[in-house]
Each structure stands twice: as C-alpha cells, then as structure tokens.
Amino acid sequence: MYTAISRAEKITSIIEKRRPLAEKITGVESNLQALKSALKTLEENRDRIINQVDDAETVGRLREIDLATLQYKITEESKKLTVLRERFSRQTLNIGVVGLMGQGKSTLLKSLSGLTDNEIPALEGSACTAVRSTIVKPRP
Ligand SMILES: Nc1nc2c(ncn2[C@@H]2O[C@H](COP(=O)(O)OP(=O)(O)OP(=O)(O)O)[C@@H](O)[C@H]2O)c(=O)[nH]1
Ligand SMILES: [Mg+2]
Predict the structure, then answer these.
(1) How far is the CA of 51 from the centre of ligand 1 (A)?
(2) Rounded to the nearest whole angstrom, what is the distance from the C-alpha of residue 93 to the centroid of ligand 2?
(3) What residues have CB less than 8 Å from 105, skipping those under 6 apart?
(4) 108 and 84, same structural domain?
(5) How many domains does the structure of the chain reveal?
(6) What percent of the chain has pLDDT over 70?
C-alpha cells in the first residue's frame, strides 16, 4: 500500500514539475507574438517609405532588409514551442516501450506501474502482448 501511494505522489510531482516549464513557454510565446507583430508594423512602414522615397540607393537598402524571413522563423519556432507547451501541460505520464518479442517490455511496465499480470500480462512462452497496447490508469 505504501509503495502505491508513493508512486502516485511521484507521478503527481513529475506532472507538477512540468507546469513552470509550460508557463515559461507561454511567456516566450507571447514575446514572440509581440515581436512578430512589431516586425509586421516595421515591414508596413518600410513598404510605405519605399513608395515615398526617390533615392534609388535608399530604396535598395530598405528592400534588402529581410523582414519576411525573420517573421517566418518566428512562426516556425512558435509552432515548435506550442508542441512543447502541450507536452508539458499533459496530465499524464506517457511511457512508450518498444522491443523485440519477449524482451521484457511488459515486465518493465509492470515494475514501473505496480500493476499485475491481470492488467499487463508478462508471461513465459510465445508472443504474449503481441499488439500495440495502451494501458491507462485513471487518476483517483
Ligand atoms: N531473466 C529475466 N527474465 C525476464 C526479464 N524481464 C522479463 N523476463 C521474462 O521474460 C518473459 C517475457 O517477458 P515480457 O515482459 O512478457 O516480454 P514482452 O517484451 O512484453 O513480450 P511480448 O509482449 O510478447 O512482446 C517473461 O517470462 C518474463 O518473466 C529479465 O529482466 N530477466
Ligand atoms: Mg508484452
């Protein structure tokens, strides 16, 4: 009984530790959004000024500034951060185990989870689990 409680506490503590990471990412995401919108304004202003200026050299220099690529990069990085934030916001610990038949995958999961052969059969003989299995332990 004691180990079951301590295991639940450990899982809760791991999930809790992710929270500040998710919050940190939220902060970075909103900074990036602000930066992106500032770059958009800058680009609009640049385009407007280009139409007002006659000097070819100045126009050339203004055109050279690659604001589009910067905005694109920000969008790409933001997408990656969203994936990470969603991961860190998960309310579950997801453990994936892959390996050859009979290598001890189910035994490892049994040992990690405290579950028995009833929930995760790990038995001698030929292929036992044999298919991709999803074991979900409902939170109390
Ligand atoms: N000696 C030894 N036997 C193990 C170990 N881990 C698992 N076994 C035994 O190996 C057999 C197969 O283990 P499973 O955990 O069912 O292996 P599996 O990878 O889940 O197998 P499949 O689901 O059939 O692919 C069982 O009889 C286990 O008791 C280990 O570390 N040492
Ligand atoms: Mg198995």
Answers:
(1) 73
(2) 19
(3) 97, 98, 99, 129
(4) no
(5) 2
(6) 88
